[in-house]
Amino acid sequence: MPAILSKTYSGEGSEPVEFLKGTGGEEQRISGLFEAVFTASEGAEEGRVIGRLVRNLLSDTPSEDIQVFTGIENAELAGGAIFTRLTYADDPRKVFILSPMAVATEWQGKGVGQALLTHALAALRADGVDVVITYGDPAFYGQVGFMALSEADAASPLPLSLPEGWIGQSLNDDALAPLQGRCACVPALRDPDIW
Fold first, then answer.
1. Partner residues linked to 76 by β-bridges
2. For 171-195, how does the pLDDT look when each residue is reduced to its tens digit (9 = 90+)?
3. pTM as predicted
4. DSSP state of 14
5. What single DSSP character describes residue 194?
6. What are the φ and ψ backbone dihedral angles of 132, each rounded to 5 degrees?
7. DSSP state at residue 157
8. pLDDT (tens digit per residue) in 72-95
9. CA 94 vs CA 61, 70, 87, 106, 138: distances in Å
10. CA distance 96 to 67
11. Phi and psi of 19, rounded to 5°?
12. Other C-beta atoms within 10 Å of 170: how many?
């Protein structure tokens, strides 16, 4: 059973959303959520790519290199966020990348994504993670503290097709000093098509 982080309400008269850490043996449901969300927003091919990525992340990543967070409402998945380790060759800091994240279509625009990220970032901070990076929409992720990064701030593990989407934040009390050395990601993220 995954750990319950907290509960939040998504609006007046609605059911509470529980935020959980771990997969709870629900890997198939989690990958199905990601595939459905990306199919609805980006098309069937992108949905298949992201669904495969999530299945690979969940099955092939060592437990110390992955953190999974979900939002559940009435036993249905409302959202999910997967964080995996990034290593920088000359830097001792503990760094994770958020990739991917999805909110079920019917829950989009209701604050579930930001609430899920807020709880996930707090849990990562409590686990001693120093820096979190993602490759996504700066406007959305900026609402929970992510800021633009350059390759000088934090090298990416593969070339970026949209460098403006490379964003991150420090989870400790220090400003985000540049990460030192070459960057490596978990094997499932080594696909140039997702960068």
1. 73
2. 998 899 999 999 999 999 999 988 9
3. 0.92
4. P
5. G
6. -125, 135
7. S
8. 988 899 999 999 999 999 999 999
9. 16, 22, 8, 34, 22
10. 9
11. -100, 125
12. 17
3-class state of residue 119 by DSSP: helix
Token pair 């490596």 is found at 184
Contacts of residue 131, Cβ cutoff 8 Å, sequence gap at least 6: 93, 94, 95, 96, 154, 168, 169, 170, 171, 176, 179
pLDDT average, residue stretch 15-41? 93
- Are the beta carbons of 156 and 120 closer than 8 angstroms? no
Q: Which residues pair with 73 in a beta bridge?
A: 76
Residues 70-93 as b/e (b if ≥16 CB within 10 A, e otherwise) read bbbbeeebbbbbbbbbbbbeebeb
| Alpha carbon distance 82, 101 (integer Å) | 6
> Using 50, 70 and 90 to split pLDDT, how confident is the model at 12?
very low
Closest by CA to 79, choosing from 37, 138, 121, 39, is 37
